[in-house]
Amino acid sequence: MKKVLFVLFVALSWAGTAQNMNDYLEMSREVLSVEKKAAIAEVMVLTEKESTVFWEMYNDYNNELYKVHNERIAIIRDFAENYEMMTDEKADELWMASMKYQEDLHRLKKAWYGKFKKALPAGKVVTFFQADSKIETLVNAQLALEIPLLETE
Fold first, then answer.
1. pLDDT tens track for 4-25
2. From CA 22, how far away is CA 25, in angstroms rounded?
3. Angle, vertex CA 2, rays to CA 60 and CA 74, nearest 5
């Protein structure tokens, strides 16, 4: 999975055409999605009935999560496009967008925690969200390595 994460974030900084970058990024996101699902499957211990409910909800959750993550990708692209000529106004705009992304992500997770908990035992829901959080932490760590700090004068 670490290899997939590396490929994903190399795509973010790849200097090809916009369409090639978008295609490559989309392919990387799909691969990451498959790897993530496999990792979640390894940690979840579900009955047959729970499995049916869980995976349907998991797919719906990830479809919504995908949309929220589009915000982060847009912020990263905007940062990269403006990095060399960053103004205080643009830096502030990007930071505010980043805070909104974090809020949207938190709101989504909170809503889906409640949905999952209505259908599955809380312990299994927590296991899922812990595993999801660990994967997200790996993604965030890779982003932290790849994205430079803004240098100001």
1. 444 445 544 444 455 565 666 6
2. 5
3. 55
